Amino acid sequence: xxxxxxxxxxxxxxxASSETSxxxxxxxxxxxxxxxxxxxxxxxxxxxxxxxxxxxxxxxINNYVEEGDWQKGKLICPNCNLRVGSFDFVSGMKCQxxxxxxxxxxxxxxxxxxxxx
Length: 117
Ligand SMILES: [Zn+2]
Ligand SMILES: [Zn+2]
What we know:
Elements: E1 4-8, E2 14-17, E3 23-24, E4 49-52, H1 59-67, E5 72-76, E6 83-88, E7 105-108, E8 112-116
Antiparallel strand pairs: 1-2, 1-8, 3-4, 4-7, 5-6, 6-7
Bound molecules: zinc ion (ZN) (2 copies).
Residues 8, 10-11, 13, 77, 79-80, 82 line the site of one zinc ion.
């Protein structure tokens, strides 16, 4: 099984990795490798986010979520202050195919780089 690392696009700080977090697609399936290219439930629409399981979070995300009272808020890179994502435990947004609730914590693909080692 490959290790996945998500880094801030601006400063290369490691925001999350598969060693400490579970990185999910929009249907809460763990992402394991690059074999599924889009990780989107709608083949015609590119998914904009990577999702993280809320059961095991990196410390810096956990701090934001606790400060935000497990409601909603922004995730800012702890190293360079770039906004890299957000969390929302309130709205219960659904994915494109409307079959699943989106995982509550996400990192925006355009703000981060993902590496499969
Ligand atoms: Zn950064
Ligand atoms: Zn879907």
